[in-house]
Design brief:
Layout lengths: L3 E14 L3 E8 L3 E7 L9 H4 L5 E9 L4 E11 L2 H4 L2 H16 L9 H16 L2 H18 L22 E4 L4 E3 L9 E3 L1 H12 L2 H4 L6 H18 L5 H7 L5
Antiparallel strand pairs: 1-2, 1-4, 2-3, 4-5, 6-7, 6-8
Helix pairs in contact: 3-4, 3-5, 3-9, 4-5
Amino acid sequence: MSRASVTEALILRASRVGEYHKQLLLLTPDTGLVKALAFGAFKGKSRLVSASDPYSHARVHLYRNPVRDLLKITDIEVIHTYEGLRNDLERSYAAALLVELVAASYGGGGPDYRYPFGLLRRCLMVLETGDARAGRRTVFQFLLRFLLHAGFLGSPGECGRCGADFSSSQEVFFDSRDGELMCGSCAVEGSLPVSPGVRRYMEGASKFPLSRALEIGTDTSLEQGLVRLLRDLLQITLNLQLKSFEIYFGLPVV
């Protein structure tokens, strides 16, 4: 097997190693999360300085040292920098939330990493160009689609226990123990009530293309319901404490 390889990647994180080097966390469409060292990426004259910034979409050239069991980055061909995400505070917080979820959930668990890779890339693009309201909808759509695809969230169209289809006006309940929506007959004590509007919005994320789902309007009540459900899902069902979640949803929408 060749020690050298080239992969498309999104750079999720970059951390300093020693005085001059960076360790990058990459999301790749074929193997999911990959950690690799970019030697000299903190040196002013290195080509890797700006090419290794977080959120960048790139073709990354890798070399595996079998003796040291070390994955080294030899070159980065930048496809898109997403500079607008780093230059705007709210966009930066939104992107940080998407990236933190991907990293904390091991890229969605696989084995198909092409979907989360493509979803993250498209949502970063929308976040870079949209306004605050569009950004909020993009974050909701990413969270729901990513969690549904990874199997962390049950179908929003039917009861996770008895399998009965939900009606459009039916109030349902979220059981944080297993990440399922339940009908009133199957709901257990302590389940979170979910309004018909929130459930329909979730169903849109499971049925519609991203471009169409992003056109679905939200109001304060619907957004508050989504935040409560997603917080329960992340913190209780998945035991993930995402700091970026609380930071981002603590921001006012203007």
